[in-house]
Amino acid sequence: MILARTLAKSTMCVAVLAVGCVNETYAPDEQESKNWPNFPIADSDGGADNGGGGGLDPDAEILGVETLDVTIPASLHAQGLKIPAKLVRPVWSKPVGPRPAMMVLHGSGGLLKDGKSNNGPCSDQMESQFATWSTRLAELGYPVLLPSSYSARGFCDKHSQADKMPKTFDANTEQILGRIYDLDAASRYLCDLPEVDCDRMGLLGFSQGGTMTMLGLHWQVEHALQYFRENKAGTVDIEIPDIKPGRPEFKVGIAYYPGCGFDGTVPLSTSNSAAVENKYLATAPLFVLHASDDPLVEHCSTEYGTGSRQIQAGQVATKMNVENLYDITVYPDAGHSFDSAGGKADGGTPAGNEAAKEKALKVALEKIHLHLDN
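Above: the chain's sequence. Below: its structure in token form.
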């Protein structure tokens, strides 16, 4: 497996994106069927635990799930922005020590429902997709952090509240750049939680959050920011600071129907003469779960589009003599948002979308388990 410390042995700069206060509990407003796989995992003594793996006391049981409102402090954010977030975690019957953890990244619909609360411009309630996913993962033993990039900037949904977006976030490129810093800060925060094993953290994202998952594993994020600052800084309304050294490494990434063009933040050239550090490579196993009837698949898959990122990953891996950890599955007859919308997804057929949702769920949970619990 390629990790940032492996690539650091080369002369290239290497990046794996990473990392408050608890105040109240929260319960999902809606929950889907719990027919997801339950993985019995061998502990260090040969016994089995409740999910999450890694030497868990066999007598420890998950009694329930709690959801907390937390704030990722501005001191961790390269742009000095504090980020509201949800922390969803299992309640154990006894202390279990640091555990594998997940970060879940929302798409362009935002993390929170519309409606002001005492905590900000949006409701305290997560959209049902994220309430379901975070509960699902917590019930398997993982603490889950869900940063809310949009409510941090005064709005809830990119599509319905564009008029509320600040000038520094009203362009697609600015959103991707801004969320790189959000992800960096959130990863440091998650890593510092006492219940989290910082060496076993994973990323899961949807749509724009899938894009951020890919960038969270990108081997050259620091260089990408520097390159953008030197060549395109005049095209955006934000400063582009460096990210501090010492970010945690992620062990796995699951990207549901991302846009792989990255809105210009990382070059797309697959020319053999293009600088290798300007090409995409994942530093940990990356599983892209996409849809055949989704325009965003264009730069992700060579079978369904130009597949620029898939090609780049192969080129960099060959050039650097490392393993190519880019994996993509494209579900036929499926459209964008098949996970949240099911049969009513944007494109595809009802049957195709439902099949994609079911198959992708199985893949996502299996890969999270495989790479965080072993």
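Residues 150 and 174 are 12 Å apart (CA to CA).
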